[in-house]
Design goal:
Layout lengths: L17 H17 L7 H12 L1 H13 L15 H11 L15 H6 L6 H6 L3 H18 L18 H6 L4 H4 L14 H5 L18 E3 L5 E6 L17 H4 L13 E6 L7 E3 L4 E9 L21 H7 L2 E8 L6 E7 L6 E4 L6 E2 L4 E6 L4 E6 L5 E3 L18 E5 L2
Helix pairs in contact: 2-3, 2-7
Length: 415
């Protein structure tokens, strides 16, 4: 039987204060209502056409808004009342980058709009629908174009809602200029877009690779907090139930190498909104396979009930269904052999950008790729023959876990 620590809510992607989330969404709704006659962007119009013309999708989106348990919401009344209103909220988001707010970060604006609907029965079915997810992919790809444009850099200012204002730098990003590559004398610290800011790099020497010459030492692939460690993982399990056990066939999308990991170890860790968002190789070896598996964007397991922070409590579950990258590395050290780095997207941060190629040799600590628009969750998957002793740096995977630096010692192969 697989063993696992209890999943927990982390990340600062949605505010823990539901009252703040309500006010934020009310303000957004008011803004959209004043521009009600504004045309929908083509990609939103495509989404509207899908909902209007596909009978199954039309039914699910209608039902999900009706099924929200409004008596449990902060206002006891619906905020997002109609599908048309929901689409207009999406439309507004598409031309704005998220602002910082010290009372609660809404880092997943679309996720915030769908927050209550995601927990309904109709929402569960809708967000597993292939046509719906294909449309979300088109929408998020279009938004990514804006987030890479110079217009998106407007939120990188020094106001209280700017990412370089005193509240953001003091509370969440102290020593920013010494930690990350930037130019403080230039506008927006030299970042030309929101995406450049979110995929920022550490300065040389800030995150040294732990014991680079010791092949038995495995390093942390992301700047992340330990979420779960599971051993003796099954090839197939009921990943949607309480506890969300890992199901390797589904995690690895039935990859022909799946059986090599059956009975092995999965380590999962979570990135926060303020984390460094690039992935680095935990071992030295050759990249033997690397690809992105399309999946869901807003699906969360119904077994966890309503999750006020989006899919945070479904992090084990989403490794089987969400859009994710799979990077298989044949380690130089035969005691490790084949292993897999699996970054998984959550909601708006589902763009997994692989920067290595098949056949490339990587050193421990070399960059493998990155999340765009923030961070998410990731797994390291090892074969059952690999006996590992993990080091969580004085803590256990739990609700109180904090980030372990990328490239830091995370595990050692032991006899």
């Amino acid at each position: 039987m697989a063993t696992a620590t209890k999943p927990f809510r982390v990340g600062n992607w949605l505010p823990s204060d539901q009252e703040f989330l309500r006010r934020w969404l009310d303000d957004l709704i008011d803004e959209v209502e004043t521009t009600r006659e504004a045309p929908l962007l083509p990609v939103i119009e495509d989404f509207a056409r899908l909902i209007r013309e596909d009978p199954e999708v039309h039914m699910l989106f209608s039902f999900m808004l009706e099924q929200v348990p409004y008596k449990e919401t902060p206002t006891n009344e619906p905020q997002v009342k109609t599908v048309e209103q929901m689409l207009r909220l999406f439309n507004r988001i598409m031309t704005h980058a998220p602002e910082y707010n010290e009372s609660g970060l809404v880092g997943f604006p679309i996720n915030a709009i769908l927050d209550w609907a995601m927990g309904t029965h109709a929402g569960f079915a809708a967000f597993l629908n292939d046509k719906v997810n294909a449309q979300f992919k088109k929408m998020l790809d279009e938004w990514a174009v804006f987030l890479r444009s110079s217009d998106s850099a407007a939120v990188l200012n020094e106001s209280d809602t700017g990412w370089f204002g005193r509240p953001a730098l003091t509370q969440h990003m102290p020593h920013f200029a010494d930690t990350y590559e930037c130019e403080t004398t230039k506008p927006h610290f030299g970042f030309n877009s929101w995406d450049e800011f979110f995929t920022r790099r550490f300065r040389q020497g800030v995150r040294p690779v732990a014991e680079p010459d010791d092949s038995r030492v495995i390093t942390n692939a992301c700047e992340s907090a330990p979420y779960r460690l599971s051993t003796d993982v099954r090839d197939k399990d009921r990943f949607w139930i309480k506890g969300q056990p890992y199901s390797l066939i589904h995690m690895l999308a039935n990859d022909p190498w799946t059986d090599r990991f059956t009975g092995g170890t999965v380590y999962q860790a979570f990135l926060s909104a303020f984390s460094y968002h690039r992935w680095h190789s935990p071992v030295a070896g050759r990249v033997v396979k690397a690809y992105v598996q399309d999946g869901t964007y807003y699906s969360e397991t119904p077994e966890e009930g309503y999750d006020p922070s989006g899919p945070n409590e479904s992090q084990g579950y989403i490794t089987e269904v969400a859009t994710r990258a799979m990077i298989f590395i044949e380690a130089d050290d035969p005691a490790i052999g084949l292993m897999c780095v699996l970054p998984a997207g959550m909601a708006e941060v589902s763009t997994c950008d692989i920067s290595v190629y098949e056949g490339q040799h990587v050193k421990k600590g070399d960059e493998l790729g990155m999340f765009h628009f923030g961070g998410s969750t990731h797994c390291l998957i090892f074969r059952p023959e690999v006996n590992l002793e993990f080091d969580f740096h004085g803590q256990l995977p739990s609700i109180d876990a904090t980030n372990i630096p990328v490239n830091a010692h995370i595990a050692r192969v032991v006899p």
